[in-house]
């Protein structure tokens, strides 16, 4: 839609003082989707010329904030790494048209901070860190799981720019498991859980997103048992941190988050033989409906 409050668009390569009403423009798929009455000027990042994806000397991978979903998907399909399938799985979790894929950026998805943001799921699960740059040129780095503070709430100062996301080499070598649930066959993620098993030390990380207001990453030095994983999630996630909107009630999201986390744990724990579906918890009010209702894609 037209943003009739915007008075100017400037090239980000031309440094000018940041002022009230300024906003960074990446792909613009969110900015132009609804009124933005507080914005007076857009600072366009599209001509910065940042390489979408670049390898670092230590084997880590940097994803530029301006990297599009199309570029990330194409890269993931040719990536010679164990965790490569997760890139495409999270890209597909967008459930967006090719037009959105060609414009939407990784940085924009992170900076929106929405619970169902699949780039948040991908980068948090692979222990990613964001590089933030202030107006004075100073930089700081934060884990993705700490950058997102709540639904739509980020640790961003006024005028600060998300420059890139770094995924460590060790995480790219991890064996991963992906689970997503929605109330509809092609609906927004109501729960998205990713497991990452580190072959170097046998540790397991389970990351819960979409069901919660912010990403929760649980790291275990050795694969946990079912009870240990469930207790860790229920202890860390407060009742008000299970997200509540039209795409799922908190009780259902908690049930699905716990269920998918257990499926991920079983898939990645070689010492725990797989067995049929996650048993319903009689004390869980969402269990009966969840057993027959929502579709779980794998």
TrEMBL record:
Residues 271-291 have a biased composition (Low complexity). It comes from the Bacteria. Coiled coil: none annotated. One of its GO terms (molecular function) is oxidoreductase activity. Residues 271-298 are annotated as: Disordered. Residues 1-172 form the FAD-binding PCMH-type domain. PANTHER family: XANTHINE DEHYDROGENASE FAD-BINDING SUBUNIT XDHB-RELATED, XANTHINE DEHYDROGENASE SUBUNIT C-RELATED. This is FAD-binding molybdopterin dehydrogenase. It comes from Streptomyces subrutilus.
């Amino acid at each position: 839609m037209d943003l009739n409050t915007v008075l100017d668009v400037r090239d980000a390569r031309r440094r000018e003082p940041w002022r009230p009403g300024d906003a960074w423009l990446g792909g613009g798929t969110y900015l132009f989707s609804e009124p933005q009455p507080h914005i007076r000027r857009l600072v366009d990042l599209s001509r910065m010329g940042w390489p979408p994806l670049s390898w670092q000397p230590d084997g880590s991978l940097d994803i530029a904030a301006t990297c599009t979903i199309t570029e990330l998907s194409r890269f993931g399909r040719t990536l010679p790494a164990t965790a490569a399938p997760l890139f495409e799985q999270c890209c597909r979790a967008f459930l967006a048209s090719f037009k959105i894929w060609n414009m939407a950026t990784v940085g924009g998805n992170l900076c929106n901070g929405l619970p169902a943001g699949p780039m948040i799921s991908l980068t948090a699960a692979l222990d990613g860190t964001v590089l933030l740059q202030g107006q004075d040129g100073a930089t700081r780095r934060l884990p993705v799981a700490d950058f997102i503070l709540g639904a739509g709430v980020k640790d961003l100062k006024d005028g600060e720019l998300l420059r890139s996301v770094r995924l460590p080499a060790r995480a790219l070598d991890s064996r991963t498991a992906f689970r997503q649930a929605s109330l509809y066959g092609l609906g927004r993620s109501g729960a998205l859980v990713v497991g990452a098993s580190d072959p170097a030390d046998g540790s397991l990380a389970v990351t819960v997103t979409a069901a919660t207001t912010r990403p929760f990453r649980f790291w275990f030095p050795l694969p946990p048992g079912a009870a240990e994983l469930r207790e860790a999630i229920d202890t860390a996630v407060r009742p008000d941190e299970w997200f509540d909107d039209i795409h799922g009630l908190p009780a259902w999201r908690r049930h699905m988050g716990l269920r998918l986390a257990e499926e991920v744990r079983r898939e990645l724990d070689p010492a725990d033989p797989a067995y049929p579906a996650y048993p319903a918890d009689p004390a869980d009010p969402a269990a009966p409906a969840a057993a027959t209702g929502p579709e779980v894609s794998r």
